[in-house]
Amino acid sequence: MAPTLVFLHEGLGSVSLWRDFPEALCRQTGCGGLVYSRWGHGNSDGLDRARSVRFMRDEALIVLPQVLAAFEIQGPILVGHSDAARLL
Length: 88
Prior knowledge:
The protein has one domain. It has a three-stranded parallel beta sheet with strand order 2-1-3. The protein has helices at 21-29, 55-70, 83-87, and strands at 4-8, 32-35, 77-80. The protein is an alpha/beta fold. It is 34% helix and 15% strand. The chain has three helices and three strands.
């Protein structure tokens, strides 16, 4: 079974910035794909409190593992740009 590509958008953006890239890359590689906007970005739920200075760290170490578990994704290939690439 092919791995799943998980696309991580930049710190201030959303999945809309990826445009058709995820679909094209998944098609070319035969991999599955997961594209989502983090909390407070794009069409996701709005923030109900200020972000902490550890926001990106928490996204990488707490939130992302929860998202992967929710979708039962094991051994993902993370694809990021800008701030998200630093999570890799």
